[in-house]
Specification:
By secondary structure, this protein is an alpha+beta fold. Among the domains are: 89 residues, Uridine Diphospho-n-acetylenolpyruvylglucosamine Reductase, domain 2 (2-Layer Sandwich); 178 residues, no CATH class. 30% of the residues lie in helices and 20% in strands. The chain contains 14 helices and 21 strands. The strands form 7 sheets. A 5-stranded antiparallel β-sheet has the order 8-9-13-11-12. The protein has a 5-stranded antiparallel β-sheet with strand order 18-15-17-16-20. Strands 5-7-6 form a 3-stranded parallel β-sheet, with helices on one face. α12 packs across α14 and α13 packs across α14. This is 3781_t:CDS:1. GO terms for molecular function: FAD binding; oxidoreductase activity, acting on the CH-OH group of donors, oxygen as acceptor.
C-alpha cells in the first residue's frame, strides 16, 4: 500500500529566487552581515512544491553572522530553519520566522590530522563540486570515499538529511564525518565528534537541523583513486528471478546500482504492447582499479554539457505529455533505447557524479530504505514488485512513474535518525525526498523510530532547550507521538 502511494508522484517545476546580500543593522549592539530579507519574502524548495514567506531570510557569510542570527531570534522570540541547495522535496526548511540560507558559507581547508590522516573541513554551504576540486588539486590529490550522485549539493544539506552515495561500504556521507561545528540554541559554537561524545555525535550526524545551524564539517579523505564504471543491460525478469545475481555483483564490486526505466520494452505494434517480460534493467557497478582514466577533465566537461542538454530534452518531452499519460510508455521506451553497454575508468568523484546535474529539470524524487536479507531475496522481490505495480497502474490507464527507479545497497549506520539506521523496520523514507504525502506516515515513523527519537531528544533538548530550531510541523508531530509512547 505504501509503495502504491509513493508511485503516485508527479513532476513539478521550480521558480528560481534571487537573493540580495547587504549589511543589516538590527540595533546599536548587534550587526548582522548577512542577507537583507528579499523584497517579497518568498522562498521555494527545489521542486517548487513548497512556497513560504517567512519573517526574514538571511544569507550569512561568516560564523559571526550565524551567532548573531541566533541571538536575534532569541531577542525577538523567533524560530530558525535552514536551507542549502539540492533536491530536498520535503518540508524540512519550512518556517514562518527566520530562514537561513547557508550557500555563502563556502570556505574549504585541507589538513593532515594526527589521528585521521588527511581531512578536509568545509563550511556548510560548500558544494560537492567545489569540495571535489579542492581535493583534486591538492598535493597529493585527495578524494572523499563516496558522495551523492549530483555535485551541486551542499555539504550541510547532505549530512543533515543522511544522503548517501553509490559505494556500499561507505554508507551515508555522514559516516565520513569525523567532526562538525554547530551554532546551537545558546548562540555558541559546539563541536561534535566521536572523541568528545559518541552518543551525541550519532545524533548530530543526521540532525535534520534540530540541533542548530551547521557551520562546518570535517571529513576523512584518502588519496585519489580510480574506479571502473561498467553498465550492462539485462532482461529484468530473468536477472531478478535469481537473487544470487545481486549478491554476486555486490561481492565483486565497490558499489552497484540497478536502474529501471518504466515500460522500456513497450512496442505499440505488438498485440500486447504492455508486456513486462520485454523490459530490461541497467546494471551499473564500480570497481577500484589502477588503470588510467579514459577522459581528461576538459573532455568530461564537454560530455557533461552534452548530457545536460539531453536531460533537458528528456524532461521537456516527458513534461509535455503529462496531460497525455498514454504516451508515456512509448516515450520512456524510446529514451531508454538510446542507451547501451559501456565500461569507463574515471577518477573516483567523476565516477560517483556520473550524471550531470541539470537544475532546470525538476523531476520529483522519492526514496525509501529497508534492510536486506542475507540471501538478498527481499531485494530482488521488492524491485520486481516495483515493476509489477507500475504495470498494474498501466492496465488501469494510469502512468504515475515516468522516470528512473534506482536501487542501491549501502552499509547501515549508527546515526540515530538515518533511514539506514541499523534496525529492522519494514521501510523508512529518505528525509530529504518526498515522504509526507504517504498516508499515516507520521504515526508510522514515530512508531518505528521511537527508541532513536527518545535518544535524539535528550541531545536536542540539551543544545536547544528553547526549541529555536524545532520549527517543523511534521517533525513536531512525529517526535511528540514517539515521546508520548
Amino acid at each position: 500500500m505504501i509503495l502504491k502511494h509513493i508511485l503516485s508522484c508527479s513532476l513539478i517545476l521550480l521558480i528560481l529566487i534571487v537573493y540580495e546580500s547587504v549589511v543589516v543593522i538590527i540595533d546599536k549592539d548587534l550587526v548582522i552581515r548577512s542577507a537583507k530579507p528579499i523584497k517579497n519574502k518568498t522562498w521555494e524548495n527545489w521542486n517548487g512544491e513548497i512556497h513560504i514567506s517567512p519573517n526574514a531570510i538571511f544569507e550569512p557569510f561568516t560564523l559571526e553572522d550565524l551567532k548573531d542570527i541566533v541571538k536575534l531570534a532569541k531577542i525577538n522570540n523567533k524560530t530558525i530553519r535552514c536551507a542549502a541547495q539540492g533536491h530536498t522535496a520535503s518540508s524540512l526548511s519550512v518556517t514562518e520566522h527566520y530562514l537561513v540560507v547557508v550557500t555563502n558559507l563556502n570556505k574549504v581547508k585541507v589538513q593532515n590530522h594526527p589521528k585521521y590522516g588527511w581531512t578536509v573541513t568545509a563550511e556548510a554551504g560548500t558544494s560537492l563540486s567545489d569540495l571535489d576540486e579542492t581535493l583534486r588539486n591538492h598535493d597529493p590529490p585527495l578524494t572523499l570515499d563516496s558522495e551523492p550522485l549530483y555535485n551541486t549539493f551542499r555539504v550541510s544539506g547532505v549530512v543533515a538529511v543522511g544522503a548517501h552515495g553509490a559505494k556500499t561500504s561507505s554508507g551515508i556521507m555522514s559516516d565520513q564525518v569525523c567532526s562538525m561545528k554547530i551554532v546551537t540554541g545558546s548562540g555558541k559554537v559546539c563541536e561534535f565528534s566521536e572523541e568528545i561524545n559518541k552518543s551525541e555525535f550519532n545524533a548530530a550526524k543526521v540532525n535534520l537541523g534540530l540541533l542548530g545551524i551547521i557551520y562546518s564539517l570535517t571529513f576523512r579523505v584518502q588519496p585519489m583513486y580510480n574506479l571502473r564504471m561498467t553498465d550492462i543491460f539485462v532482461p529484468a525478469n530473468e536477472w531478478l528471478n535469481n537473487p544470487q545475481n545481486i549478491k554476486n555483483l555486490l561481492e565483486s564490486s565497490d558499489g552497484i546500482s540497478i536502474a529501471y526505466w518504466p515500460f522500456n520494452g513497450f512496442n505499440h505494434s505488438d498485440p500486447n504492447p504492455l508486456d513486462p517480460s520485454r523490459d530490461r534493467i541497467e546494471i551499473t557497478n564500480w570497481i577500484r582499479t589502477d588503470e588510467p582514466v579514459n577522459f581528461t577533465q576538459q573532455q568530461l566537461k564537454q560530455s557533461y554539457e552534452t548530457q545536460r542538454q539531453g536531460v533537458i530534452q528528456q524532461y521537456k518531452l516527458i513534461s509535455s505529455n503529462l496531460q497525455n499519460p498514454d504516451a508515456i510508455p512509448n516515450i520512456t521506451a524510446t529514451l531508454f533505447g538510446s542507451f547501451g553497454n559501456a565500461s569507463t575508468v574515471f577518477q573516483a568523484p567523476d565516477a560517483i557524479h556520473y550524471v550531470a546535474s541539470e537544475e532546470s529539470a525538476k523531476f520529483d524524487f522519492v526514496e525509501i530504505g529497508f534492510k536486506i536479507e542475507p540471501d538478498f531475496s527481499n531485494a530482488a522481490a521488492e524491485f520486481s514488485y516495483v515493476i509489477q505495480t507500475i504495470y498494474e497502474f498501466a492496465r488501469k490507464g494510469k502512468f504515475p512513474l515516468n522516470y528512473i527507479a534506482d536501487f542501491r545497497i549501502i552499509k547501515s549506520t549508527e546515526a540515530l535518525l538515518s533511514f539506514t539506521f541499523n534496525h529492522d523496520p519494514e521501510i523508512l523514507p529518505h528525509w530529504g525526498k518526498r515522504w509526507e504525502f504517504i498516508p499515516n506516515v507520521k504515526s508510522y515513523l514515530s512508531d518505528v523510530l521511537s527508541n532513536q527519537i527518545k535518544q535524539f531528544e535528550k541531545v536536542r533538548a540539551k543544545y536547544d532547550p528553547d526549541k529555536i530550531f524545532f520549527d517543523n510541523k511534521s517533525l513536531q508531530d512525529i517526535f511528540s507521538r514517539a515521546l508520548d509512547s
